[in-house]
Design goal:
heteroheptamer; A mainly alpha; B mainly alpha; C mainly alpha; D mainly alpha; E mainly alpha; F mainly alpha; G mainly alpha; D: mainly alpha; two-stranded antiparallel ribbon; 32 helices; 75% helix; E: mainly alpha; 2 strands; 77% helix; globular; binds sodium ion
Chain lengths: 132, 116, 146, 764, 501, 157, 91
């Protein structure tokens, strides 16, 4: 029984990893590649770890596996956020078919501050008034 | 398997050498990293490869390991070599950083006045 | 001081603050169990250094320095001294340099523990590794900020 | 004996202080030391016919090197000359260099030179002889370059040193061979081994090496050029070096080794011809010169040639002639050099053409000069005559006819030279000189007067000199008892006839000297193209070659250094592998490799290649990261979890470090041409292939199993740890780990210094 | 194991390690570091003398680190060669430490000069004493990284340029060394040198063994500065502080030479092998190329640097001839050379202090102004050129005698010629620096600092040693003789390390 | 967190008492401690909140896993099929989360769900910028995200 | 059965590794390469998991644990400095 579950988890995990890799290759821009790699990668490796936990079965291994999964869940989004943000702000080209971009023009590269939409609108109005 | 790894080691050496023959000091440093990896893998390969038998004695079996075990001595050597390589590399990286600041060029050809 | 500070990232900072003690604890765990499971002074030291590198990424050099209340140079000196001392201890009993001395300690809750100079040695290694990586990273980062 | 020698060095070391102590009388005060030595050696005269006195002290007995000394006729003759003339030279120098600021230093070097010279002639041990030999070279270097602000003096000093030390090195080899052949370093032993030595296969090369040493030191053709240049030295030095010492060292050596090496046809031919040629060239050049010291110096070359030739002839009479000539020459040449100094001192002239009629101003000097010149010319009843007679006799009896001819011509020219020195400056029209000429003080005159007088007295009492001094010397040179039978009057014979003939010819030559000079101008060009040119050319070639080879090897291009090293590496490895090719076999084994292992290796290889080919720095760093992960995986796959962890961590930190640094650096540029890249790629591939081959061969050549089974077995019971790798690291091989953390600490310290020092410099 | 034996074999490594660690702990206090530097090197010297004396009296001493038996643990082995080298390290270390007190600037002291110096000494001594081939690699690295750091202390352009070449070429050497160790371990499964000697004794004809010997030849040849592998040396040795140059000049290349002596007497005994022929050729070429390199130079320390190379040639010649006398000569030469070469560098620093330059064209008149310095220069300079009765003469004499005995005529010829050319360089320095008048517009000396007398004392001490080694050559010869017989009799070494079995 | 600390303490005491120093022992101790806490200290607010939160966390984990799988499948479909069906956009979503910890947790969890990726938080912390892969309808997407945020905040408060 | 699954997993992971390496090579921007590197780290975790099962030695999981906790630092480092310095022409 455990063997079956382990096998199942293993296959699922591997396929997810495959998905992540395919996504990395096939997706048209950086951010979308990251969608594939971060999520599928984290989930895939997590599942493989679960497979190992199921396979060995001991509490010791379970503890390790849960720790590993926790670590992945903690670190993967941070990394994704950092790369995505950096990529966006240094101007990595986005896919041509992007629908909207709320971030555009809201980042002040001098003092590294990012406006919220409210602030942005306020500033726009202020500038408009000044221009008039 | 050692045949396959031997090939890989050869390629690592080759790329490392190719890089340290460049004029760019940055490539030089990257070459040094590869060189260190190459030497470590060479020891690893040369001392014999063993699958599925880490030199760890399982808990509870407070006795001698039975059967084949991967060579722990070679592993200890490589570990030492890795760490030494890391220290040296850290130094080299900062060195090229400083050299670039002083010489203002990433070009070994601008660094040949001291010799003669 | 007119140079732009590095961009702040709330996500990195908060998660980092959470990860930092985790990493340090994990590094100690790797250090202490290294004699029996994968780990040891180096590995532990490298993980601890990674933790402080992380701290460096979400704060600045000053606060990373504050984090380890010792100057990294002290870590080097003390780490080396501890490692040497662990080897010298045996010499007072007429044994050669680096001979291991073991003692069995009965700790409530943990039962019998074998404590020896190799562990002390590994602690020295741990400190030196941290000291090394920090010295290099922090001074480089300082140069970067300057 | 030892104290007599070492004392000399002691006095030399103290000389600067003694000079300060005695002030302007230091010359006489310091002359007491050679005087003491002279008396000491003179006291040995009585026993000299009883056979050599041997004294030995251990120095390096294991190498056969002893501080051993031998006093026999030959060494005693030299010791007396060195210390005796030394007395007057030191006194002379005290006055001559009175105004010189470095005179204390001068005494020191001069006395050290004297001590070395004495050591040379008294040594019984070949190596201690050589030690003193080299010491004379060094001290004379310092003496010749005494006026060191003068570039010419520096150049001459170097030339002298270079030629003599160069010869000295050959000599050392020759002496080593001699000792090996003769079975001892002691001359006293070797001199009896002549037959063994001459029969040995090494005889010719050994002789060549030793002669090279002797000839360079004694300024034989073609090494004669350094000696006249050495006139750059202050006059007391020239007087000393040329009369009794330095240049006679080579002669001494030839005379000394005659019993061991002499007597062969080779010896006869080489010494005879080289000596005769030197004789002729020396006197020819002397006659062509006008500088007083230069004339004297070339006449010294002539004398040295004569001595060499005579030793080469090797007959009893020739050896007697040699010793007599040596003594005569020392006396008159010492006197004449000092007189040259007096002329310089008194008139400011160094050139014969600027002098004339000095007799009126300095009559004592003039008479002394004339007496000394008579001896040089070999006029009856001077000791020079005695020597010349013997010279003629020996040439007539044993030398080839062309040598006889050269000797006769040379002797005639010597007469002319003697006239140049003994007549030209003193008599006739008074020349206008820089300074008003005045008679020299006693300290300057003492030497010339005594030496010139001795030249006369020895001539008058020639048999006495023979009996007391020269007989023993000649016997020592010959290796058996010889009675030279020195006498002023040998009756009317061919030699006397030749004497008269040369005298007449010489005087003619003197009076026709301007014509002679005019018609022989062409030889100047020859002389200019001579060996000195060779010396200069070889020095400039040396500089050129070294500059070229330095540019070639030490080009400054790191990649050429690497290329040379790598090519050497491959040459060495492949030489051995190809020699043993049939015995080598590759342990190729591709069984059991799993698919993912292929994939890992493939990615590893591809990532490494990508790092090498990358057009972007950080792209290369990312590829490096990929290399790191695959290597870590390989470690894991092959049962090395600790390595895997370490590799992962180190890789991560390396990437962080590289990123931190590389952002400061500019992007990659394509700096080299495609051809060069191709070349480098080929070299790199060759190295890679070499390493792969090594691994494959090694895989098939395993000789023993690893000792690590012990570590596996001892890990728990001995090291109380289940992670064997860690137990090895912190216990079994803790010393490695200790060294390694020091490497880390050192790297950190170095990095800190680099960055912080820069920061401090910037803030300044 | 006798604990005194263990102690005296350990101390030469332990003392500088402790001094280095303490200096790092006390990095805030310059004064304490200065104190430790003299005390530490002084103690090191005493310990090294103790070691040499007891090795001379009692034979080879072995320390089993961690009390683990050979060949499984690491051993420190003090035979005569090791202990001689250790003692020379002690002498050079103490001299450098004293000299440094006067010459090293405050900021360099603050940024780790002293720990670097101590640990360099530790690395050097570790390399000399270890009986384990991988441990040798570790000490090599300690020494190298210390030297890297010392080399760049100052941060000048020339130092950076020199350091990059120095670091790269030495890392290539380390990589070759490490590869050689890897292959050797794969072949024999052991790292202990005595054990290697035993295991390889019957396999010297094995092609892989010979190939590995070549790898060691390469690796150590680079470290030793042999032809054609020496490039890193002239590129860098003239760039650091002069005390550092002196330490490098005296010790670093000699570690390579030592390793060659050790490996090619113990593990791959030379015999009549291809390796020997190669080494002979290498020796000759090294002498010649080095000395010619020097002839082209006009900078004090560059001349000296190139001469290191040529002198290494003599030592290699001693090894390559591989007769007892030749080895004696090699050992004698090493002893002589370390002291002389360190001293010459120190003198160049003294003159730099007086006249503010290393460029011969900018220097002059020292013989008139400071005759004693002239004498102090002449002693090591003439010794280097091999003039008697100084130490260098006997070194050269023995090696050449060995060459004559072995009838290696061309090598003897080269050795002689090189002696002459060395003299050429030394007299060039003499003529330019001491005899020539100080040229117009020469560089001005830097601000006067105290401590010149410390510099002079150091130089006087080393010059005295040079004279003594020459004048009292017999005991030194005896020592070298014992050393050579130990080297050529590897059984004694093996016996001492591995015991009766 | 007082409740959690107590629970850990109980687990440790269990380990000490039982003498079973292992992961399993600790786990048992933890579970037992939780049950004891839930039974005995229901009335103390700190503990009752802790006790109630644990099942919520469990429920959330299930929800999160479901989301993970669901959206992974959508991405998978897109990756595997040749045509790109993506409708990417960078959108701003106003935040209800206030403390830094809340914001970070929300942002990270959003990142972990496929189809959304937290790019950054505005400096005034009122708004989260997201990259979404499938912007079928802006308001609906925002609502989904707000709902997700609400579930996370419910856990924390 | 498990053996086959292990073999399959290895095969799939290998293929994934190759694919992610392709992205690493192709870039085109530096963040793309970093993403690929991150993915390779995840794949390494996966590999280790499968290997642990295949070898029946869970000690290998420790490698994955360290990797999971620290590998993201490289990416953060890259990102940090990209933001600070902007992109270079050659990245
Ligand atoms: Na280690
Ligand atoms: Na130990």
């Amino acid at each position: 029984m455990t063997e079956w579950i382990a096998a199942l988890l293993l296959m699922a995990g591997s396929l997810l990893m495959m998905l992540a890799a395919l996504g990395a290759v096939r997706m048209p821009d950086l951010l979308m590649r990251m969608h594939a790699t971060t999520k599928a990668g984290a989930l895939g490796s997590g599942l493989i770890m679960l497979a190992a936990a199921v396979f060995f079965g001991s509490a010791e291994v379970w503890a390790r596996v849960l720790a590993i999964i926790a670590f992945i869940m903690l670190t993967a989004p941070v990394a994704a956020h950092m790369i995505g943000r950096a990529g966006y702000f240094v101007g990595v080209p986005l896919w041509g078919r992007i629908l909207r971009d709320d971030l555009k023009g809201r980042y002040d590269t001098d003092n590294h501050s990012l406006e919220s939409p409210a602030e942005f609108n306020e500033r726009r109005q202020h500038e408009d008034r000044r221009d008039q | 398997m050692s045949t396959l790894l031997a090939t890989a080691v050869g390629v690592l050496y080759a790329t490392a050498i190719y890089l340290i023959l460049r004029r760019s000091i940055v490539k030089l440093v990257i070459g040094l990293v590869l060189l260190s990896n190459a030497a470590n893998l060479l020891i690893f390969t040369s001392s014999g490869l063993t699958r599925y038998a880490p030199p760890l004695i399982p808990e509870g079996s407070d006795t001698v390991l039975n059967g084949i075990v991967a060579d722990p001595l070679a592993q200890a050597l490589i570990l030492t070599a890795i760490v030494i390589g890391f220290g040296v590399l850290a130094f080299a990286v900062v060195l090229i950083h400083r050299a670039y600041e002083v010489v203002k060029a990433d070009d070994m050809d601008q660094m040949k006045d001291t010799d003669t | 001081m007119n140079m732009p500070k590095q961009p702040d990232s709330l996500i990195l900072r908060v998660t980092g603050h959470f990860l930092l003690p985790l990493l340090i604890m994990f590094s100690l765990f790797l250090l202490l169990r290294g004699h029996n499971e994968p780990g040891g002074g180096f590995i532990g030291g490298l993980v601890a250094s990674a933790a402080i590198a992380l701290h460096l990424f979400f704060t600045d050099v000053q606060s990373a320095r504050r984090l380890i209340w010792l100057d990294p140079r002290d870590l080097l000196g003390w780490g080396l001294s501890i490692a040497i001392a662990s080897g010298v201890i045996a010499m007072f009993s007429g044994l050669p340099f680096l001979s291991a001395l073991w003692t069995e300690l009965t700790v409530p809750m943990f039962g019998m523990l074998k404590i020896g100079t190799p562990l002390m040695f590994d602690i020295g290694v741990y400190l030196v590794v941290i000291g090394t990586v920090l010295n290099i990273l922090l001074s480089l980062a300082e140069a970067e900020e300057a | 004996m030892l104290y007599a020698l070492l004392g000399g060095f002691g006095v030399a070391a103290l000389a600067p202080w003694l000079h300060q102590l005695f002030g302007r009388h230091s010359g006489w005060a310091l002359a007491l030391w050679p005087a003491t030595l002279f008396i000491y050696f003179a006291s040995m005269l009585s026993g000299v016919n009883d056979g050599p006195v041997l004294v030995s002290h251990d120095w390096i007995p294991s190498l056969g090197i002893q501080l051993s000394f031998m006093v026999d006729g030959l060494s005693l003759l030299f010791a007396l000359l060195i210390s005796g003339i030394g007395v007057f030279i030191v006194a002379y120098a005290g006055r001559y260099l009175e105004q010189h600021q470095d005179v204390g230093r001068f005494y020191a070097i001069l006395l050290a030179f004297m001590a070395s010279m004495l050591g040379l002639v008294l040594s019984d041990n070949l190596i201690s002889l050589f030690v003193f030999w080299e010491l004379t070279s060094i001290t004379s270097y310092l003496l010749i370059g005494f006026n060191h602000e003068d570039a010419a003096a520096r150049r001459s000093a170097l030339q002298g040193l270079f030629v003599t030390v160069g010869g000295g090195l050959a000599l050392m080899t020759g002496l080593i061979m001699l000792a090996m052949v003769g079975g001892s370093y002691e001359l006293s032993t070797l001199l009896g081994q002549g037959d063994v030595i001459r029969e040995h296969a090494w005889y010719a090369p050994m002789l060549a090496l030793i002669l090279l040493g002797a000839f360079t030191k004694s300024a034989q053709f073609p090494f004669h050029f350094w000696l006249p240049n050495a006139m750059a030295a202050p006059t007391p030095v020239s007087a000393y070096l040329h009369s009794a010492t330095m240049v006679k060292a080579g002669i001494y050596l030839l005379a000394r080794l005659n019993p061991a090496l002499g007597g062969s046809q080779l010896w006869l031919t080489v010494l005879g011809s080289v000596g005769a040629i030197t004789l002729f060239i020396g006197i020819w050049l002397a006659l062509r010169s006008t500088g007083i010291k230069k004339v004297l110096a070339y006449s010294t070359v002539m004398a040295l040639g004569t001595l060499t030739m005579l030793i080469g002839l090797g007959t009893d009479i020739a050896l007697s002639a040699a010793m007599a000539f040596l003594l005569a020459h020392s006396l008159y040449k010492g006197a004449l050099f000092m007189i040259a100094g007096i002329i310089d001192h008194g008139t400011g002239s160094k050139d014969l053409r600027d002098t004339g009629g000095l007799f009126r101003a300095m009559p004592v000097t003039a008479v002394t000069a004339s007496v000394a010149a008579l001896s040089l010319a070999g006029v009856l009843p001077m000791f020079g005559f005695v020597a010349k007679e013997l010279l003629f006799e020996s040439v007539l009896s044993s030398a080839a006819s062309w040598i006889t001819l050269l000797v006769v011509a040379g002797t005639a020219m010597t007469v002319a030279v003697a006239a140049l020195i003994g007549i030209l400056p003193w008599y006739g029209k008074t020349a206008v000189t820089k300074r008003t000429p005045h008679e020299a003080p006693p300290a300057l005159l003492a030497g010339p007067i005594v030496l010139a007088t001795l030249g006369l007295l020895f001539g008058l009492f020639a048999p006495l000199v023979d009996e007391r001094l020269l007989g023993a010397a000649v016997s020592a040179v010959a290796g058996n008892s010889v009675t030279p039978n020195l006498a002023l009057w040998h009756g009317i014979n061919v030699a006397l006839g030749l004497s008269a003939l040369t005298l007449a010819l010489g005087l003619c030559l003197y009076f026709c000297r301007d014509q002679f000079r005019h018609y022989t101008r062409f030889t100047d060009t020859l002389a200019k193209a001579g060996p000195e040119r060779g010396y200069d050319a070889s020095i400039s070639w040396l500089v050129k070659i070294s500059a070229w080879q330095t540019r070639f090897f030490q080009s400054g291009y790191l990649r050429y250094y690497l290329l040379i090293i790598l090519l050497t590496f491959m040459a060495l490895v492949w030489t051995v592998m190809l020699i043993h090719w049939p015995a080598l076999s590759m342990g190729i084994d591709l069984r059991g490799i799993q698919l993912h292992e292929y994939a890992l290796v493939f990615v590893l290889v591809a990532a490494a290649l990508a790092a090498a080919r990358s057009e972007s720095r950080l792209g290369a760093v990312a590829s490096l990261g990929a290399v790191g992960f695959t290597v870590a995986l390989l470690y894991v796959m092959f049962s090395a979890p600790d390595l895997g962890i370490t590799q992962v961590l180190v890789e991560t930190l390396t990437v962080i470090l590289l990123v931190l640094v590389l952002f400061r650096l500019p992007g990659f540029l394509r700096l080299t041409s495609t051809a060069l890249r191709l070349r480098d790629a080929m070299v790199a591939s060759a190295v890679g292939i070499t390493m792969t081959c090594l691994l494959l061969f090694a895989a098939d050549a395993r000789l023993y199993d690893s000792i690590s089974h012990w570590h596996v077995a001892q890990s728990m019971p001995g090291g109380y740890g289940r992670n064997i790798v860690n137990v090895i690291l912190v216990d079994f091989r803790a010393l490695d780990t200790l060294g390694e953390i020091f490497v880390l600490a050192l790297a950190a310290t170095g990095v800190l210094a680099m960055i912080r020092l820069r920061a401090e410099d910037k803030s300044k | 194991m006798n604990s005194a034996v263990a102690l005296q074999t350990t101390l030469p490594i332990l003392i500088p390690l402790i001094s280095g660690a303490l200096s790092l702990v006390l990095w805030r206090s310059r004064q304490l570091q200065r104190g430790i530097s003299v005390l530490g090197t002084g103690a090191l010297m005493i310990a090294s003398v103790w070691l040499l004396l007891s090795v001379y009296a009692d034979g080879i001493q072995v320390m089993y680190a961690g009390n683990w038996p050979a060949p499984f643990g690491i051993v420190l082995v003090a035979d005569l060669l090791s202990s001689i080298m250790v003692m020379l390290t002690g002498i050079t270390g103490l001299a450098t430490a004293v000299y440094s007190l006067a010459t090293i600037s405050k900021k360099h002291e603050h940024y780790g000069y002293y720990p670097l110096m101590h640990l360099l000494l530790a690395g050097v001594n570790g390399a000399f004493l270890t009986g384990d081939i991988f441990n040798l690699y570790v000490w090599f690295e300690v020494m190298l990284v210390a030297s890297f750091a010392l080399l760049i202390l100052g941060g000048e352009r020339a130092q950076m340029e020199g350091a990059i070449k120095y670091v790269t070429l030495n890392l290539v050497s380390s990589a070759i060394f490490l590869s050689a160790i890897g292959l050797l371990y794969g072949l024999t499964g052991t790292l202990n040198m005595a054990d290697l000697a035993v295991k390889l004794a019957d396999h010297q004809d094995n092609p892989m063994v010979q190939v590995i010997a070549m790898l060691f030849l390469m690796a150590f040849g680079i470290k030793a500065g042999a032809f054609p592998l020496f490039f890193w040396l002239p590129a860098s040795y003239h760039t650091p502080r002069v005390a550092v140059s002196s330490l490098f000049a005296g010790l670093l290349t000699k570690v390579g030479v030592y390793a060659l002596f050790r490996v090619f007497t113990l593990i791959f005994p030379l015999g009549d092998s291809l390796t020997r022929d190669l080494l002979l050729g290498m020796a000759g070429a090294t002498m010649l190329v080095g000395v010619l390199g020097a002839a082209a130079q006009f900078e004090f320390r560059r001349i000296l640097s190139f001469h290191i190379i040529s002198q290494i040639g003599y030592m290699l010649m001693g090894l390559a001839l591989y007769t007892p006398l030749a080895i004696i000569g090699g050992v004698f030469y090493i002893i002589h050379h370390i002291i002389v070469k360190s001293n010459l560098f120190l003198i160049s620093g003294l003159i730099y202090r007086l006249q503010g330059s290393y460029d011969l064209k900018q220097l002059g008149g020292v013989w008139r102004s400071h005759p004693m310095i002239g004498v102090l220069f002449l002693i090591p300079a003439l010794s280097l050129a091999g003039l008697p009765p100084l130490s260098g003469f006997f070194g050269k004499f023995i090696v050449i005698k060995a060459g004559v005995e072995a009838q290696q005529w061309w090598l003897v010829g080269v050795a002689l010629l090189v002696g002459l050319l060395t003299l050429y360089s030394m007299t060039k320095i003499w003529a330019e620096v001491f005899w020539k008048e100080l040229p117009e517009g020469a560089a001005a000396p830097a601000q006067q600092r105290g401590g010149t007398s410390l510099m002079v004392i150091t130089i006087v001490a080393l010059s005295t040693m040079t004279v003594l080694i020459g004048v009292a050559a017999e005991p030194v010869y005896k020592l070298a003789e014992h050393t050579a017989s130990q080297l050529l009799d590897s059984q004694a070494y093996i016996q001492s390390v591995l015991g009766v079995n | 967190m007082g409740g959690f600390a107590w629970n850990i303490l109980l687990a440790l005491i269990w380990v000490a008492v039982s003498g079973n120093i292992s992961g399993a022992g600790l786990f048992t101790g933890f579970v037992l401690g939780y049950i004891i806490l839930g039974l005995t200290l229901r009335e103390v607010p700190v503990f009752s909140a802790y006790v109630r939160r644990v099942p919520k966390i469990f429920m959330f984990a299930c929800y999160f896993a479901k989301e993970l799988v669901r959206s992974n499948l959508r991405v998978a479909w897109d990756v595997v099929t040749p045509t790109h069906y993506m409708k990417p956009a960078v959108i701003a979503v106003p935040l209800d989360a206030r403390t830094e910890g809340e914001i970070a947790l929300v942002a990270n969890l959003i990142s972990l769900t496929p189809g959304t990726l937290s790019l950054d938080v505005s400096t005034d912390r009122r708004c989260l910028y997201l990259h979404v892969m499938y912007l079928d309808d802006l308001e609906e997407t925002r609502a989904q995200i707000k709902q997700f945020e609400a579930r996370v905040l419910e856990l924390l408060r | 059965m498990l053996e086959i699954v292990i073999w399959l997993s290895f095969a799939i992971l290998s293929l994934s590794l190759l694919l992610s390496f392709v992205r690493l090579l192709r870039g085109p921007s530096l963040p793309d390469r970093v993403v690929a590197l991150e993915l390779m780290a995840s794949l390494t975790v996966g590999f280790i998991g499968v290997h642990a099962i295949a070898s029946q030695r869970f000690a290998f999981l420790d490698v994955a644990m360290v990797l999971a906790l620290t590998a993201f630092l490289a990416a953060v480092g890259f990102a940090r400095f990209l933001e600070k310095r902007g992109m270079h022409a050659d990245d």
